[in-house]
Amino acid sequence: MKKLSLSFVVAIVFLAACKSPKEECAFQPETSNIKIELSFTSLADSIVAIKTKQELVDFFARHTTMRDVFFNRVGYPSDSVFINELYQRFSNPSFDTLLMDTKKVFGDESALNKEFSDAFTNLRFYYPAFKLPRIETVITGLESDLFVSDTLIIVGLDHFLGKNSNYKLNMYEYMARRYTKEFVVPSAMLLLGIDSRINIINPNDRTVLADMIAYGKAYYFAKHLLPCVPDSVFIGYTSTEMDGARENQDVIWKHLIDREVFFSTSKLMKQKYLDERPTTIEIGDQCPGRVGVWIGWQIVNKFAKQNPSASTLPKLMKMNDPQLMLKNSKFRPD
After folding, report:
1. Is the Cβ–Cβ distance between 213 and 263 less than 8 Å?
2. pTM given for the model
3. How many contiguous H segments (helices) and E segments (strands) does the chain have?
4. Alpha carbon distance 249, 286 (integer Å)
5. Is residue 78 classed exposed, middle or buried when 0-12, 13-18 and 19+ CB atoms within 10 A define those classes?
6. pLDDT per residue over 150-168, tens digit each?
7. What is the DSSP string of 296-332?
8. Which of 49, 95, 116, 146 places its Cα 20 to 30 Å from the Cα of 29?
């Protein structure tokens, strides 16, 4: 009965949460003197324009990472099977409709190009020597969404068309709602922020806290590159979930303490509090999933405020002592 009562009480608290004040932009660096040359190539039209199998072979010969990773060449028994299946997919009349849907949402992709350019201009402020990756956009028939490496970013635009598209993603609604055009660049920056070349971690620390802080650093990193993007876009919560998470950090924190979550190395514990789930039912049926990631982000934010001399973006991303960051953050929800 105690567990049922707690769940019920927390559910009511989350539902009754007050509206949060409108978010303000985070720190915006002075970048007027920073000029970048971003390689941004749209390939959606090129895919639809392919008329023969040989043209498809030639296309993939020019875009080998797209072939091997984005279109999963290794998942096919042979080159001929791969080319035949992809050619059949790209030749289907519905692919023209998919392209039209994509253009309705992304237009000529100039806005997407600018958002990437703004993010990477901010990145150059913090990391002057950072070599910018090339960016390629494409439509895949809903096969792949996003690929990020040190040299290349590939965006499957048709994954980010939103709920009004003629083609629906085969995933749960709580995940599908993050696949809109607003999520493209924030998602790419988060993937960049979790990369081990930027986000230094201690591989021997397998605690839930270590993962929370690693994710929190990635969100902190991405927010600095896109300072005016709302937190809800990064974390993928609805406005109700955001309000509940903010207003009830004390409830969440107490639960994590009481259940001894932080220093657990249990995979099950990580699944409960860090992995994709519609809700964190252990706290309450209105508590959003990945709530441990959310708290990790808040700990990192608080650490940065409490320790300004140690929290320039490159310095913070190199810190790999989660317990020290938690201690020095003095994070305690009201």
Report:
1. no
2. 0.90
3. 17, 4
4. 13
5. exposed
6. 999 999 999 999 988 888 8
7. HHHHHHHHHHH-GGG-SHHHHHH---HHHHHHHHT--
8. 146
**Does the pLDDT of residue 3 top 50, yes or no?**
no
CA 209, 212, 214: angle at the middle one, nearest 5? Answer: 110
Residue with tokens 């991303």: 317
Q: CB burial class (10 A; 0-12, 13-18, 19+) of residue 77?
A: exposed
What average pLDDT does this structure show over 252-272? 96
Q: Is 155 helix (H, G, I), strand (E, B) or coil?
A: strand
User: pLDDT category, 1, cuts 50, 70, 90?
Assistant: very low
Structure tokens at 145: 């969404």
| DSSP per position, 97-136 | HHHHHHHHHHTTSHHHHHHHHHHHHHHHHH-TTPPPPEEE
pLDDT for residue 334: 67
Tokens of 318: 């190199």
